[in-house]
Design a protein that fits this description.
This protein is mainly α. It folds into two domains: 199 residues, no CATH class; 32 residues. The chain contains seven helices and two strands. A hairpin with a 6-residue loop joins strand 1 and strand 2. About 3% of the residues have low confidence.
Amino acid sequence: MEKNDTDLAKTLGTLKQVQIDAYKDIINGAITVLTTLVFVILLPYISLLIFRDGGNTILEVIEVVASGLVFYVSISRLGFMILDIWRILSWANIQTEKFEETSQDPKLYSYLKREDRIIKKIISLLSISIMLIYLQFSGKFLIILNLTNTPSIFMSEPTLVFLPVHVIILFSIVYDVPILMMLHEKVLNELVEDKIVQILFKESKCPICGNLIPKKAVHCPYCGIELKPGDSNV
């Protein structure tokens, strides 16, 4: 097997492993949601056994925490599942059977996993923000504010309690987005070098500007050069 074929096989093996990881993540996400639901259902009964003299106060706090937990887990895992499905469908045309090499490209794999971690972090932060908005407008959080003798300004304007958290979440996302874009660019560069993008998406590189263009393009949509058959780098 030639070196180019070996590199291509390693890249294909890496993408295939990412697909396998995505399938596992979907299953783990479903298990997490089911486990959370069971825990939340059992939580009031467990609380009654532990805090027998706590009255309705403990149950009200538990209700707020439980509803927030279910909301967060459901929204975040739904986002994770969409990401995993996108990973699976993005490389749906991968066929590694014709390659003897089944190893992986560790650099590409690390880029893809780091990209996944950052995307999931952003999804988690957005889920927290959505959960807080839900608690705020559902009125459930007022229960905790009443129990903690919160100053009246926060009682009349609960937004003041949540606003700093939303700002912190926003700053964190803004910090992560450039890192995510940089990683995505590195992933694309790795795939372009191994000609995976050209193979899967039937694209080629413009010989002048180097951007990816359709194989049958007559003109480059980026630099405008007229292309002749055989000009593009496949």
